């Protein structure tokens, strides 16, 4: 009798678990119908008014004013605008904490927290550009993120980048895992080592950081890196500042320019070569503005949307009188201000030439570059450079997806693609800063956030 009772309990528990599992599965498979939508699909066309979007199993099934599904959960979005989730083709994850960027900050907890922050700001794919550490790969975090098994933005990785001995990138910003070859002969073995973590790009630094370092990466070194990466079917992205370096890198076969050229306006001949070689350009305008703007007390500095993106202690640091005076009195203040204006000119020239421009910010590399807010600021700065709001949105969605080679699934709101969406309370075509009025964020068809200001 006792055995029969125990068997009954086991069978009942199994049925209950099966029933709950089935209910959960049915709930996750249930369609969602977004109606009364103003749709900006990321392809660059004018918004579509009063349309509907049907989502099932994380994918966009149908779009159109007459779309219906009697079994779908209906969400009325009258007065709101839907845009694709943002994609950053140049960011950094894990090393930032508080007012520091250090190796010891790179923990699973910190990585997950930052991916969640990006998600709250509607940024659902980020490329960590060359500053990752073994933990990301050994823990399985990168793979779990790519499969949507963990909360937050999906992390893409360039693994460990290539720099210069006693030069860029700066060791004091947790760059100790970067390869720093002295000779061409070292590069094949280092590239084999990097390939083991399956990088989606290879990052190189070709810069002296306004004369901070005596030497930049030599052309024979970066030529060998590019050659070895291409042999392994991996593209190379370059941190660059000077036009003279851009020209040499274009000739060497670079694939992606990871920052604006800021030394001078790019000449027409180089623009033509970049276009002919299908080179991708990531302007990171917000990085350049952050280098001086806190001394000017920008209009957003006390805005909660900005403040929520900061690590603890950073707001107090950047608003202190000492910090702002140090910025103003720095010999680089005028240099950085001029570099920013040049960067904007070059973005417009590159964009108008038909070169693929993708959105990146270098957010997360240091405390000044706030994760999440930087991406929305980048949209604003692109419009200040002369792009329309619709063009800026396409750069930050469709183009960034192309740059990361994930455009089959992400970047635009189209039938068959993953339902990564930001719902905002106002029309970004009227004012690009309306992307900051986040009502809701959907990742693969599931609402995952009400934005950074939600209680």
Walk me through what this model shows.
The strands form four sheets. Strands 1, 2, 3, 4, 5, 15, 16 and 17 form an eight-stranded mixed sheet that branches. Strands 11-12-13-14 form a four-stranded parallel sheet. It has 15 helices and 17 strands. Strand 13 (256-257), helix 8 and strand 14 form a beta-alpha-beta unit. With 455 residues, it is of the alpha/beta class.
SSE diagram, text form:
Blueprint: H1 2-29, E1 32-39, E2 48-56, E3 59-63, E4 73-76, E5 81-84, E6 86-91, E7 96-97, E8 100-101, H2 108-120, E9 123-128, H3 134-138, H4 141-146, E10 154-157, H5 187-195, E11 202-206, H6 219-231, E12 236-240, H7 243-252, E13 256-257, H8 268-276, E14 280-281, H9 285-290, H10 304-307, H11 314-318, H12 321-329, H13 333-352, H14 373-384, H15 389-403, E15 421-424, E16 438-443, E17 446-449
């Amino acid at each position: 009798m006792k055995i029969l009772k125990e068997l009954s309990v086991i069978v009942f528990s199994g049925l209950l678990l099966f029933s709950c599992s089935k209910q959960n599965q049915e709930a996750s498979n249930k369609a969602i119908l977004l109606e009364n939508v103003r749709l900006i699909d990321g392809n660059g066309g004018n918004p579509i008014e009063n349309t509907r979007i049907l989502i099932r199993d994380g994918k966009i099934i149908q779009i159109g004013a007459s779309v219906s599904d009697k079994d779908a959960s209906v969400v009325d979005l009258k007065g709101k605008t839907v845009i694709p989730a943002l994609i950053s083709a140049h960011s950094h994850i894990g090393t930032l904490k508080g007012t520091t960027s250090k190796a010891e900050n790179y923990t699973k907890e910190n990585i997950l927290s930052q991916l969640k922050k990006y998600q709250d700001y509607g940024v659902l794919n980020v490329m960590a550009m060359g500053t990752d550490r073994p933990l990301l790969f050994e823990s399985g975090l990168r793979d779990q993120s790519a499969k949507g098994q963990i909360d937050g933005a999906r992390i893409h990785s360039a693994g460990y980048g290539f720099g210069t001995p006693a030069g860029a990138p700066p060791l004091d910003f947790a760059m100790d895992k970067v390869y720093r070859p002295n000779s061409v002969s070292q590069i094949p073995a280092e590239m084999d080592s990097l390939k083991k973590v399956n990088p989606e790009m290879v990052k190189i630094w070709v810069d002296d950081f306004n004369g901070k370092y005596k030497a930049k990466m030599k052309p024979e070194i970066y030529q060998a890196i590019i050659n070895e990466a291409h042999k392994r079917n991996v593209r190379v992205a370059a941190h660059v500042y000077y036009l003279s370096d851009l020209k040499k890198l274009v000739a060497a076969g670079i694939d992606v320019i990871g920052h604006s050229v800021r030394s001078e306006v790019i000449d027409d001949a180089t623009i033509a070569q970049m276009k002919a070689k299908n080179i991708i350009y990531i302007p990171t305008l917000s990085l350049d503005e952050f280098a001086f703007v806190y001394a000017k007390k920008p209009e957003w500095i006390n805005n909660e949307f900005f403040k929520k993106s900061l690590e603890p202690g950073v707001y107090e640091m950047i608003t202190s009188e000492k910090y702002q005076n140090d910025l103003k009195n720095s010999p680089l203040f005028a240099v950085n201000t001029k570099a920013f204006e040049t960067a904007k000119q070059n973005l417009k020239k590159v964009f108008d030439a038909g070169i693929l421009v993708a959105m990146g910010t270098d957010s997360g590399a240091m405390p000044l570059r706030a994760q999440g807010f930087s991406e929305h600021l980048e949209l604003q700065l692109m419009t200040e450079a002369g792009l329309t709001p619709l063009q800026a949105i396409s750069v930050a969605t469709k183009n960034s997806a192309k740059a990361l080679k994930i455009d089959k699934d992400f970047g635009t709101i189209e039938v068959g693609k993953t339902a990564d969406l930001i719902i905002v309370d106002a029309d970004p075509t009227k004012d690009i800063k309306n992307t900051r009025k986040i009502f809701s964020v959907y990742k693969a068809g599931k609402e995952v956030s009400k934005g950074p200001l939600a209680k």
